[in-house]
Every structure is written in structure tokens, then in C-alpha cells.
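Our example copied in:
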Amino acid sequence: MAFKLPALPKPSGRTIALLAAIGAVAVGAVAANASKDPSPPAAAPVSTAPVSEAPAAKAPADQPVAHDAAAAELKAAAALPQCRSARLVPVNRSWGIPMPSILGSTSTTCNLMYGDDPYRGTSRTGDPETAIQVLQRNLNFCYGSKLAVDGIYGSNTRAVVKTVQRKHHLVVDGIYGPKTRSAMNWRLYSMATRSWSRSCSSPL
């Protein structure tokens, strides 16, 4: 609603009071509309990261924490060296698990990820093809996947690793690393009898 004020050479005290009253009504209307808005109150901390258009009230309370944890895990997994060998990890006196490992080490704290074809980077040391094949064979037997055992960590291998991660409630990043290794099921092998187990388990 427009108010027509009389033209005065100099605003009187009454005119100033009228303008103040109109301003107060306008501020009250904005505040009333803001109270109906489902977005977080203005006093909430503002993130410098991009946010989605959805109201924050609809997102789970732990989503930012989960996202940060997933990002941290992804960064940590990607920082590990590529698995460039495979070894039999003893479980007990009779059985062991063939699994990807670090070249020239007993450590299995390494990773395999999409694009390992089989080597990652310019170095051509070690045998990542065998490491990937060991993983692919195990995924085929223990999880019923039908991967080509080709030593290439392509989109199919990544998809199966993601399925395994979902099954075991891990961060789903498609990277085979220590957490996936420890959670997944493995087929055991006996050096004494040179035979494979008939079923899979997670003895780690």
C-alpha cells in the first residue's frame, strides 16, 4: 500500500514518526515470513562449502560427519601404495589366505583401485596384475561375481568391490584397501594339503 505524504519544505516530527511506523510494519512482515521458512535460522553457523538446495531440516543429523569421515577414508585409502604382489597370509597352522600385498614385504596394507591396468603411475616394478587376479578370483568364489580374471581393475571389478563394501557396511568408494580386506570373506588355502577350502570366511 502506497502512502502519499504532503510535500513539505522540511520534514516535520510527525512525518518522521509516520515513516518510522511504516518501517516497523515492513520489518515485522519480513520477520513473519522468515518464521515460515523451513531453512535453518540465520544464527546457525554458515559453511564455506557449497550446500544443496534442500532444506537442512530434512537431512540426517549425522550426514555432515559421515560425509567428512568418508572423504577422510577415501583420502587415506588413495594415499596407500599399490598392491604389487600377493602372498599367503597365515590364519592358523593349517590354513592361509592368498591376498594382495606390498612388493617385497609381508604387509598387506596397500590398495587397488579403478584404473590399475595393472600398473599405476610410471613405475613398472612388481606384479600388480597377480595382486588384482588374486582379488578377482576371491570375489568370484566368495561373492558369486563373474569377473574376468584379467589383472585389470576396471569398472566391473570396481562395481563388485562397491557391492562388497555395501554388504559389510563400509564406505562405498570402490577401492580395495585395508578396511575392505579385513571385512570381506576369503577362501582359504592349505599349503600342507595343497587344497582350497570349500567355503569362505572372514578370519582376519
Residues 13-36 form the longest helix (24 residues). The first strand starts at residue 85 and ends at 90. Residues 15-60 have pLDDT under 50 and may be disordered. The beta strands are 85-90, 96-101, 186-190, 195-201.
